[in-house]
Design brief:
Blueprint lengths: L1 E4 L2 E4 L4 E4 L2 E2 L4 H12 L7 H8 L7 H14 L10 E4 L3 E4 L4 E3 L47 E4 L3 E2 L7 H15 L6 E2 L2 H5 L8 H8 L3 E10 L2 E10 L5 E10 L3 H29 L6 H14 L3 H17 L4 H16 L6 H18 L4 H12 L4 H14 L4 H13 L6 H11 L6 H15 L2 H14 L4 H14 L2 H14 L5 H6 L6 H16 L6
Parallel strand pairs: 8-10, 8-11, 9-11
Antiparallel strand pairs: 1-2, 1-7, 2-3, 3-4, 5-6, 11-12, 12-13
Helix pairs in contact: 1-3, 4-7, 7-8, 8-9, 8-10, 9-10, 10-11, 10-12, 11-12, 12-13, 12-14, 13-14, 14-15, 14-16, 15-16, 16-17, 16-18, 17-18, 18-19, 18-21
Length: 546
């Protein structure tokens, strides 16, 4: 069934909410709440009605229920003050008061949850198609459909807890993870209903791959042991049964709904990065890589670090991809990212030119995929690094509306706060990024941003702690070495400071104090005073003047 209200389409068969042509992110419990409210819109429903229908009568705190109802309002563009669609009747309950039309859901092919395969980073659901977007399914010589390069099924997670009532939470983790993965560009995700057919069965992942025509399978389990919750996951290559990646998450049991969001967010972003790395490895052996193969390889280069070597290699891959397909959204996004990194890391004497080039390509990418959250984040970063912090923060906040789990957008806002002379606020944004994605590939950069903010504030001991952690996470980040050198220099640890400076210069030989002084990212007096403090520390550490 589909329910139409205002400019929204609420599809209960596909479990999707759209506003116009744009998909609206919505978690399973919030979806169930909205469905119950719409189905029962002719009368007022109480809190007990909602808990009984959505949570099977389990104990749910008023705060948790209020949080989910607020999420319903946010998803449909309503507010507790306006109550245009969802009305609260004090001491009685709630009622959906919007004008609703009902239609039957049209028949569709069973492969439901897939983002446009045209390029990495591009969002928007579509039917399965080949690389030229024609909609035809690619076949190998044997006549069997060839699996998409980034295609995956999330098999139902196993409930290893003694309590069978825990099944609802475990199923919700599986469903939410499937939904969140389906928002990533170039990722073909098998619909939840198809994946459910394997629940409770002994399976051969290679057979699953053949039956569903996917390249990767994700298996997982959830176990509650006393006051701890443990989630184990493993990514498997469905073509050969090889285990590619495994991870364990452990948390103290708290609000299960908040825990579900946190676990799924962390899983989704870590898994996406692992899939890109796997696709890049496959592409290395191809004699005739196409634009997507080259784009994956470029992204994988940037994962290795932000040195002149890796950034230069990534640029070559993205340029080759654009030579094959000048409208490749993934390659345009990659080029924007390369120039943004080159400017931010001061790998060049002309950082402003790099930022402007990044802005141009980010805008081109958004012309192809206006709702891509990553591209909005990169565009926001270019604004931030060219003395337009307020405009940049707005772009990042828009990216978070499109993808509430986009951890990097929080870290980018953290950079902006330092540039605005509000470095004391930066650490909070970095902590929020880590809450959403504690094992993110960008963690080393976030630690650098926090350490730099602490240096600006004169909290040198804290700065050293953040910066050492950044370097331990990824040693191929020149600015982290230079910032550590500056902090140690100011603390009087000159031998260590000089060692850190030498490590930075080995990664970025052209770095000088003149480059740092020439960067025009902000004219805020507080920020400029912090930059001068950093330059003095680098001078003490022996960084060349230039």
């Amino acid at each position: 069934m589909r329910y139409l209200f205002e400019d929204y389409t609420f599809d209960t068969e596909r479990r999707e909410l759209h506003r116009g042509a744009d998909a609206v992110p919505i978690s399973p419990q919030v979806f169930d709440l909205l469905e119950f409210l719409i189905r029962n819109r002719e009368h007022v429903v109480s809190k007990d009605d909602l808990i009984g229908a959505v949570w099977n009568g389990r104990v749910v705190s008023d705060a948790a229920l209020t949080t989910r109802l607020n999420a319903v309002r946010h998803a449909i563009g309503d507010s507790g003050h306006e109550q245009r669609l969802l009305r609260t009747l004090p001491r009685k309950g709630f009622r959906f008061v919007g004008s609703v039309q009902e239609t039957q859901t049209p028949a569709v092919a069973p492969v439901a949850a897939r983002l446009d395969e045209q390029d990495p980073g591009r969002a928007g659901r579509s039917a399965a198609g080949n690389r030229d977007g024609s909609g035809a399914v690619a076949h190998n010589d044997g006549g069997r459909p060839r699996s998409a390069r980034l295609s995956i099924v999330v098999l139902p997670f196993a409930n290893l807890s003694a309590d069978p009532q825990h099944d609802y939470f475990v199923d919700s983790v599986t469903e939410t993870l499937t939904t969140d993965l389906s928002r990533f560009g170039n990722l073909f995700v098998i619909a939840r209903n198809s994946a459910l057919s394997y629940k409770g069965k002994e399976i051969d992942v290679r057979q699953v791959g053949r039956e569903l025509n996917v390249r990767y399978v994700l298996e997982g389990s959830v176990q509650r042991n006393g006051n701890r919750l443990r989630v184990n996951v493993q990514l498997i290559d469905a073509e050969n049964g090889k285990h590619l990646w495994a991870e364990r998450f452990e948390k103290l049991v708290g609000d299960l709904f908040d825990m579900q969001d946190e676990i799924v967010s962390s899983l989704a972003y870590t898994l996406r990065n692992q899939l890109v790395v796997a696709a890049a490895r496959r592409a290395e052996g191809l004699l005739h890589p196409d634009a997507k193969d080259l784009t994956f390889q470029g992204i994988a280069c940037l994962y290795k670090g932000w040195t002149a070597e890796y950034v230069g290699q990534a640029r070559e891959f993205f340029e080759r991809a654009l030579a094959i397909d000048h409208r490749s959204m993934g390659a345009l996004f990659g080029m924007a990212n390369v120039d943004l990194i080159a400017g931010f890391s001061l790998l060049t004497d002309e950082p402003t030119a790099c930022f402007l080039a990044a802005e141009t390509n980010a805008i081109k990418a958004l012309s192809l995929a206006p709702s891509d959250a990553y591209a909005h984040q990169v565009l926001g970063a270019t604004y931030i690094m060219t003395n337009r912090a307020v405009q940049g923060i707005a772009e990042c906040e828009h990216a978070l509306v499109l993808d509430r789990n986009l951890a990097g957008a929080h870290s980018t806002i953290g950079i902006a706060k330092t540039l605005m002379g509000r470095a004391a606020e930066t650490e909070g944004h970095i902590i929020e990024a880590f809450r959403l994605s504690p094992r993110d590939m960008g963690a080393c950069h976030w630690m650098l941003f926090a350490g730099t903010a602490k240096l600006h504030l004169g909290a040198d001991a804290d700065a050293v702690s953040w910066l050492r952690r950044s370097i331990e996470t990824n040693r191929n980040l020149p600015l982290a070495h230079f910032a550590l050198a500056a902090t140690l220099g100011l603390l009087g640890a000159l031998d260590e400071a000089r060692g850190a400076a030498r490590a930075g210069l080995a990664l970025n030989p052209g770095f000088t104090l003149r480059r740092l002084r020439a960067a025009k990212s902000s004219d805020n007096p507080t920020f400029l005073a912090g930059q001068e403090r950093m330059r003095e520390g680098m001078r003490l550490a022996g960084v060349p003047k230039g």
